[in-house]
Design goal:
By secondary structure, this protein is an alpha/beta fold. It has one domain: Uracil-DNA Glycosylase, subunit E (3-Layer(aba) Sandwich), CATH 3.40.470. The chain contains eight helices and nine strands. The termini are far apart. The protein binds uracil (URA). Residues 71-75, 78, 84-85, 87, 89-90, 111, 196 line the site of uracil.
Length: 226
């Protein structure tokens, strides 16, 4: 029998093979403290997203949290308030955390991309969310990599494909990875749906199925499955 490479060995539900070995983001420089990292990130110019964003939205939550949730990027509300997951997607995430029996104050919440990427809506004054490019996600892996190394969470949940790219450096379809538990450098990494993607689903039934999947993944991540 062939020995499967470590990255193809997925505990959890089913084994799935990933084309390229995922690797936790590798930051540069000497280890800062989390407070130093946050201060440095506030003046980040690693990509051009800072030019149109109000501020860097750094991670927040329990410092020594066993569970880290990584989202995609700050949204409009997060950009204004300077905190992750405080808009509509954050409300849905909060509901999913409650349903999974997880206290938000016990987790560390952050994003793969720490500036809001947006374009003007030609019909209104709204700022429309734009998807960050691979190079923007990769530029931000420096901050995420240090957050992971400094906090050493037992489990990381990647919420959506951008988080997967940020945490693991791979571009693998989400549905292929969802439900898989990877073990990387002593950290468990799980992939789930992004709460905003759940919100965007067109009908009630699809939304409630996707919400249940998100809750199931969060339970698996926190070890609160029943
Ligand atoms: N979506 C994200 O991925 N992160 C946030 O902080 C808000 C919305």
């Amino acid at each position: 029998m062939l020995n499967a490479p470590a990255y193809a060995l997925a505990a959890g539900r089913e084994n799935r093979v990933i084309a390229r070995p995922p690797q936790l983001a590798r930051p540069e420089g000497h280890a800062p403290t989390l407070a130093q990292l946050r201060a440095e990130a506030a003046s980040c110019t690693r990509c051009r997203l800072y030019e149109r964003a109000t501020q860097t939205v750094f991670g927040e939550g329990r410092g020594a949290a066993p569970l880290m949730l990584v989202g995609e990027q700050a949204g409009d509300r997060e950009d204004r308030l300077g905190r992750p997951f405080v808009g509509p997607a954050g409300h849905l995430l909060q509901a999913a955390l409650e349903e999974a029996g997880i206290d938000r104050s016990q987790v560390y919440l952050t994003n793969a991309v720490k500036h809001f990427k947006w374009r003007p809506d030609p019909r209104s004054r709204r700022r429309l969310h734009s998807r960050p490019s691979a190079s923007e996600i990769d530029a931000c892996r420096h901050w995420l990599g240090w957050e992971i190394r400094l906090l050493r969470p037992r489990t990381i949940v990647c919420l959506g494909a951008i988080a997967v790219r940020g945490v693991l450096g791979v571009t693998t379809p989400l549905r292929q990875l969802r439900g898989t538990v990877l073990e990387l450098e002593g950290t468990r990494v799980l992939v789930s749906l992004h709460p905003a993607a759940v919100l965007r689903l067109p009908d009630e039934e699809a939304r409630s199925i996707a919400f249940a999947e998100l809750v199931e993944d969060l339970r698996l991540a926190a070890g609160t499955e029943t």
